[in-house]
C-alpha cells in the first residue's frame, strides 16, 4: 500500500512536470537533469546523445556562426546551414551590379566556385565545465566587490589560457551564469575558412520583408549555405586554396518526414540574452516606460523614412536595410510590452516579491529586494534620459557622420571609404525631417532638470527645432561630399567648429559627464544585488527548475509543434505551404514579388502542399537564428529563424499560450536547392531519413 502510494506520488509529480510549459533554455552539459522530462514529452535520445565529451554527440554538429547566430553541419564534408539573414552581410559583400547575389541568389556549382569570407568564423563547442570553485579560489565573503572582480578575472584568465594551450585553434572563455553564482568554462574550436556555397534570391530568403517579420503566417525561405574548410589534418586554418572540406565529428541527418501538430521538437543553439529573474521594477520600467517611449520615437522615424521610400525607388534601395533594422526592434518591443501587460507580469512579480520579503526576514536575503528597489529608483531617471538620447539625437545621421569623420579624418583612406559609403545611402530630406522630430521628441520626453543646457540655449536662440535644423544644415560641411573628401589633416578646426559636429559633441559630453558615471555605478550595484536575489530565489523556491539567462552560450530548448490563438476567434495553424506564397505573390510589392521560376513551378501543379515554415513552442531568442530544429530522434526538421511578435516577451516571461518560435521546414530548403538553384548535386553529400 505504501509502495503504491509512493508510486502514485511519483506519477502525480511526473504528471505536473510534463504539464509544465515548454519554457527554458538548458545547458547541454546538464541535460541529464532534463532528459526525463524530454523523454516524457517524446524524445527518443539519451543525454549522452545530446551532449558528451567522450563520444561524438549532437553538440558536435552545432556551431556559433559569426558572433550572433547559430549554424548546423549537414554533411561529412563540412556543409553548413544557417539563415539568410545571418549570411546576409557576406552575400552582400560578394554582390556587385554584375553579380547581384542578394537579388538573384548564388549557387556554387562546384567547390571551386565557393566564395571565401575573410573575418567570418564558426565555433564548435569542445566542452563546457563548471569552474565555480576554481574561479573563486582566494575569495572570501569579507572582500569587496572590486576584490572579487579582480580575483575572478585573474583565475578565469589562468583557466582559459590553460584550456587554449591544449590544442590548435582553441578559444576559451569563462561565463558567469545566474548573475555570477555559477561560472562555466567554455572551450571552442574556431574555424576561419568558411565559404559561401549558396543563397536563394532575397525574394525567397527575405520573402515578406519587414511586413512579415515577427509574423505568422510566414513564408520566408530564410536560409543560406556555407562550407567549413580545414587544413590537411582537419584543424582550423586561415583561408588557403590548399585547405580541404572539414570532416565534422557529427552532422545532422535530414528528415524527409516533416512535422505535424503535436510532434516533439528541440532547438540546439546560441540564444543571446534574456532576463527571466528580474524584479517587478525592472519589468515595469521595460514594459511601461522604456518600450512605449522607444516605440513612439521609432514610429515617427519609420513614418518619415517610409514616406520617402514610397516616393522613390532609389531612396527605397538606400533606406531598406536601415528601415529593416529600425523596424525589427520596434516590432519586437510592441509584442513585449503587450505580452507583459496581458500576462500581468508586474503584478505577479510584486506578489512574489511580497512573499519573498516575508520569507527573507529570517535569513541572509533580508533587505535584498528593498535594496534593488532603491537602486532602480535612483537609476531609472538617468537611464530614461540616456535611452531617449540614444533613440533621438544619436540617430540623426548627419551627427553620426560628423563624429565618425572627426575620429577618422587623420586616416585619409578610412575617411574616404567611410564618406563614399555614407553618401551612397544618404538622403538629406529624410535626415532633416528626422532631426526636427528627434529634437522635439527628446525635448518633450526628458524632464527639464536632466536636459543639457546646450539644448535649452539652442532652442531659445533659433526659436524652434526647425530653426535649429536650418542653421545646422545650412552651415555644416558634412552634407557636402566633395568638401568632406577634401578635408586634410590640417582641417581639425573646420571639423571642430562645424555645427553638426558641435551638436554631436555637446550632447555626448552631457551624456558622458552627467549620465554615464551614475548609470554605470548603479548598474554594477544592481548586478551585485542580483547575485544575491538570484540565489535567494533559488533557495526560496527549492522545487523549481532554474535555467540560467541566455548569454550566447549553447543551450537546448524543447517543446512541440503547435499553432496558437492570437486573438478572439482566430486560430493559427502551425504549418505554412507554398500555396500561401502564391497567395501573397504580388509583382507590384517589392517584398512579395517572387521569382518567375517559382511561379512557373507552381503553375505546373501538384505543389500546393509543399511545406514552408512551422511553429513550435521552443523557447528561443535572438541568436537562435539558424539553430537546428530537431525531431525526437535528433534528425533535422527545420531551421529556427524568428518568433511570433505576440510572444516576444518570452525574453522576460514565457507564455505557453502564444510564445512560438518560427522555423523554416528543411524540405523547403531542399526544394530551393534543387528546383530554384539547380544545385541538386549538394543533396548527394547529405543523409536523409524517412
Ligand atoms: N525578427 C528576426 C530576428 O530578430 C529576423 C530579422 C531579419 N529580418 C527582417 N525582415 N528584418 O532576427
Ligand atoms: N530573429 C532572431 C535572430 O535573428 C530570433 C528571435 O529573436 O527569435 O536570432
Integer-rounded radius of gyration: 27 Å
> What is the helix fraction of residues, given as a range?
40-55%
Q: What's the pLDDT, averaged over the residues?
A: 95
Instruction: Compute the number of strand runs.
Output: 20
Ligands bound to this protein structure: arginine, aspartic acid
Shape: globular
Structural class by sheet pairing and helices: alpha+beta
Number of helices: 24
Strand content: 5-15%
- The poorly predicted ranges are 10-19
Query: What summary fits the major beta sheet?
Result: 11 strands, antiparallel
Distance between the termini: 46 Å
Structure characterization notes:
- This protein is an alpha+beta fold.
- Among the domains are: 56-262, no CATH class; 280-539, no CATH class.
- 46% of the residues lie in helices and 15% in strands.
- The strands form 3 sheets. Strands 1, 2, 3, 4, 5, 6, 7, 8, 9, 10 and 11 form an 11-stranded antiparallel β-sheet that branches. A 7-stranded antiparallel β-sheet has the order 14-13-17-18-19-16-15. It has a two-stranded parallel ribbon with strand order 12-20.
- α10 packs antiparallel against α11, α13 (368-391) packs antiparallel against α21 and α17 (453-462) crosses α18 (465-475).
- The two termini are 46 Å apart.
- Mean pLDDT is 95; it is low at 10-19.
- The structure holds arginine and aspartic acid.
- Residues 85, 209-210, 213-214, 324, 328, 622, 625, 642 line the site of arginine (ARG).
- Aspartic acid binds next to β18.
